[in-house]
Amino acid sequence: MTISSVYPTERERVAVDAAEKLMREAMAHNDPSHDPLHVLRVRHTAMKLARGIPSVDLFVVELAALLHDILDKKYVPEGTDARAHFAPFFAQFSDVLSAERAELVLRVVEHVSWTTEKKLRAAGQWGAWHDKCLELHCVQDADRLDAIGAIGVLRCAAYSSRIDRPLYVPPVLGDAEDSAIGHFHVKLVHIRDQLKTAEGKRLGEQRHNFLLQFLEHVDQECN
């Protein structure tokens, strides 16, 4: 299939709107840490990153960004088959979404997760495709940027509330890592170093510094 140099075409826009509708319906009842507004922020940032990189398939990036959290294991039964779940959507737009592009969207969706990347790297299964796929990098960076900075702080607190996790546990009173602030140290402060695009790294530096400042204030207030 020939990819148009003008994005989006009218038919691509119809497909993107349908993907957004699918996402909104699927995630309507999620808590604020993983709600449709999170996905819309990821879409916005992913497209910003993608437009600055030559040869990136913007249609694939936009669809993958919109679909990336619909089957998040924290909200749907583990083992849900992504290929089967999205097959009707891909079939509906097969005139503009070739089998090759649909496969790329699916593959990006399946590999966006921080946890997935961590497990694959630990198993020696993070390969050349992961390192070279610019569409994956744009969506990954956008998703991870939404986990740090001011919005990241709010999302961490929101998810902690959902799972009944304390915001802060003084080390003398228990497992300090089993808290929202503990999650900062376990994961969030490491995100900056795993960003892949040049613009993502620039934005990540700013948001990382905000996290460090926030942690300093928490330490001052609690200790």
Tell me what the structure shows.
Helix 1 packs parallel to helix 3. The chain has two domains: 126 residues, Cyclin A, domain 1, CATH 1.10.472; 75 residues, Methane Monooxygenase Hydroxylase, Chain G, domain 1 (Up-down Bundle), CATH 1.20.58.1910. With 223 residues, it is mostly helical. The model has no long low-confidence stretch (mean pLDDT 95). 63% of the residues lie in helices and 0% in strands. It is built from eleven helices and no strands. Pfam families: HD. This is HD/PDEase domain-containing protein.
Task: Identify the notable features of this structure and list them briefly.
HD/PDEase_dom; HD/PDEase domain-containing protein; single chain; Methane Monooxygenase Hydroxylase, Chain G, domain 1; 63% helix; mainly alpha; 223 residues; Cyclin A, domain 1; HD_domain
